[in-house]
Amino acid sequence: MDSTEYRSPDMPFVCYYNKLCSLTASDPSFKTELNLLLDELISENYSNSATRDSIQLEDVCRLLLKASQLIPFSQEHLVLKLSQLVIQLLNQLQVSMDAQTHNCIVSYYVQALQTCSSWTHADILLALSFLVCGNGSSFQQHLPNLFGQKGILTIYSAPSQPDMELRCAAIHCMANLCLGAPGQSYLEEPYREICFRTFLQTLQSPKPPGAEELVFCTLLQNALKGMQHFLNGVKWKPENGDDLGYLLAMLKKLMFYGLLGMPVEMPKILYPAPLPQYDVPVSPKVSEESVLARPGGSKKKKLRGNVKKAETEGKRAEKRNTGEDHELRQGGRGNLKEDKGSWSHKPSQMLLGGNTLCHPSWRSSESEYSDTEGGFNAKLRLYQMRIRQGSLHCFLSLIKCVDKRLLFGYWSAFVPGAPSVGGPPSLSLLTVVLKDPSPKVRAGSLQVLSALLEGSRLFLSAAEDINTPRQAFTSFSATLASSLRELHRSLLLALMAESSPQTLTQVIKCLAHLVSNTPYHRLQPGLLSPVWKHIQQYVRHRDVNVRVSSLTLLGTLVSAQAPQPEIQLLLQQPAKMSGDLEFSREEHTQNWRQQSSLEEGHWLCGEEGICWLLRLCVCVVTQPREGPQLESDKLHLSPNLLEPPPVKLEALQVLAHLVKGYFCLIQGWLLELYQVSACCLREQDPSMQLHGTKLLEELGTAIIQQYRTVDLSESTKHVPLCKVIQFWSDVLSGPLTTALQNEQHPTLQTSACDTLSSILPQAFRMLPEKTQMLCMTVLLGLTYSDNSLVKAASVRALGVYILFPGVSEDVMFMMDSANVIVTALEDHSPNVRAKAAWSLGNLTDAIIVNMECVSSDLQKELSSGLLLKLVKSSIQAAKDKDRVKSNAVRALGNLLHLLQPHQLKEPGFEELLDHAMSVLVDTVQSDATMKVRWNACYALGNAFKNPVLPLGTASWAAKAYSALSCAVVSCKNFKVRIKSAAALATPSSRAQYGNSCQFAQVWTAIVKALENSKEGADFLEYRYHTSLCDQLCQTLLHLLCVCQPQDLQTIQGTVTDSSSLLMSFLVSYLVDGVTLAGTGDQEDNGKNGTLSHDRVTKMTDAVSALRKLSEDPAECSAGADTIIMFLEEVLRNYKQTKPLG
Questions:
Q1: What is the pTM of this model?
Q2: According to the UniProt entry, where is the signal peptide (predicted)?
């Protein structure tokens, strides 16, 4: 067959398959024709979009399957060409074979490895690695032949394998076997463990003598990629205790692979403790890779960036000899009140340890080596860079798959401590950040450091350097504190030295993680001020991502552990002192913001005394970017002249953080901030509208919080009520109502509902009646929304309004809300049901308050039918999930408290009462969460307050007392014990406790609870121990006050048997009352404390009640006298031990 007929450039792919099918092995020209056809297929450009779109997956599978059937293993050169074709098709077309074709092709190559000569194995393994990429789970049947004791991969991946290309191909194939595809299972054991051992052994093995440097670099890259795939597979728990240490040591070594001046000797294992005996001293001997990467000897390297400027500023810095760099090394301690930035942002200060410049350049003069030598060294540096980058990517995967608590033990190996004096600096992640010439490697190191810092707040909370005494050793807290200071210092050096926008973004993100996890309240002040001052110039950076990350960092500064005194002081500084750094003319032209608009163009941007951050965020949201503008553009701003949405959204989030943490500093601009929100709500972008609504919500929440915590008589410390009323009047007459009706964006509606629920109650009642009705009507209407988020938010907002003064007296609104809440309790969404249960609890609370404090209009309007409906809904909700149940039982207790005598006589109420009590009892005895059981005990106590309930005679009463008695004795949670003891003290008369056996059960349970009061499963429960003992003693005295003669025998027995125990608890109860009265603290954690006078009065009341019983017939007087004598002795001991004064 003529070879020219294979060279049609537009031949359809299916034609190749047809020609392949026409070939027969018996044809004398079979080998030649097959060879030419394979050459033609290999020469096709499959990356071309037109070619790629014209090829069908079925045609590719059929062609490869047919080719594998035609090519015998004896024709090894054809086997290799088929391997090249497989690699090219899979790589360029990105196709996925069907299971049958994939299995046939894989079987063909596995058999080829066992049959063909070894010189073909490298290419076959490479093709096999492409076939198994992401398909390791479907490759299980072939694994024994590859990973067995004499398997191909086992032999070729061993360090003893002399052929480095074969070894690279084997490691590459194993790496792809460990790669898992979405929706598929990963490689199973024991093959995963074999792969891990092979990868680790490969990374630890030195370069064989005579091996090519580029090939060895490729081997390390493949092993690192395989280890990364292994770690990405499943959650890794090191079986061998040293595996993690060996892996971390190897990753640390490879982080510096090929860098100039890095030591050869590094520890082979890291231990989870900063133990000096495992530290290897830095050797002056440099690595072989470093020598190879330095062909030009010790000639000067060309500096990266503004070289002349760096040299000039360096000379100036030496002449000035200021203390700025010293402040950097000390962690930024300085005078916060100075308006001049104490940290220089000039390149001359980018020094770390002597005169070594950060990020040395690899570029050198072309005359230093020939073109061939230069090309080789450039390629070698690229390969070494990929190894460093791969080790960092592997480290990042390790952080994600290993328990973070294990990694914290190796903190000192990767995060530097205080700068060493007189010795070489320690090698850490920050060494890579400051000295690696590749921006990709620097960014990878920053990502690893960010991952380590993320979620480290609990670990870093041990750091402290405030008032630390001088000791003979350095404590762990002091070491950790110095590490945090060095992190701040080094990251700020990296911030000032970085020129790559992508890496600069990672530096700022890493600073944000550091700020959010550092315990600044335990460290010397001064760490935040340098970060604050130096990040300000980057909010004007030309790169959008840098501007966004800078705003994120500013948001972290004002939200982390707010309010911070240091940040508060910085916010109080005028804008020109805090934020307006002096720039050169060139830097000023790079500003996106018009300086004139900052000073005089806007209603808020030109305010005197406004903090820099508030002004910046407002201008980012509302003002145009700097650039040439026509007069017409100034009147009608084009959208492309404004900041891009990500920057504006981040600025709005910073404003929200600022409002939440430092509202007292910006409350003077409350109405202006509403205008910012209104501006956002008028935009077309739903995200902008959403963040504008959230800003309004934060403002409303901050006002409520301020009125709750600040004494209203001190009018200078909170927003005047008239201003709050004006604020909400503007909000409710503005674009917020449009957002509430925007059904196309339910998330916006949800946020608008949350904003309505953040109105100050005192301000709401002062709004016009029309505005009040608008809010209530809109919320009632939104409860019928089809979207569960909107419905949940509106139902919750109704629960907030129900408690407002004045609104709770609106009978019609309360009835409408009740019907809406009952309907929402039957919703399919658990979130809606949970919010409805919470609102139902608030509704019943409001009804009880109105019945006791206002008029009986609401009680008259609360028909038996509606009450019956509410009780049934509460019972049903009490059987729901815990998040619904906790408020459902609270509402049920309130409803039982509301029952009237005539309602109990109506049909259905008695059975409903039995059912409700049974639900509450079952909840107390269940294994539900603490909050649910606490609310169930509270509900029973609330129901016991209703005098019309047959508490002493009903069948459910015995079960209720038994459940509470069991909870007060044996519940692991002390708060549940406290509330159950309070419920047992609720009945006001002896008849409500039932017969003498039932009373004796309650009395015995309280005494037993006192004996068990020091027993608790969780140490944290002991903070409620005093409150529990006080409540138990209070319940004991209440029982003594209402007891009857038939109860004295039980009481006398416990007093006699446990006199010393009861004596100590009762005396402590009275003494604690004196302490509480002296300190003015009437509530001790559990809010059960009473003043000393009240406690002594309760004791004397119990003695008086017992004296009356002692006047009864003679058979009862002996018991009463014994108890009276005991109580009088308690009073005498109290008078002897009570504190003076």
A1: 0.81
A2: none
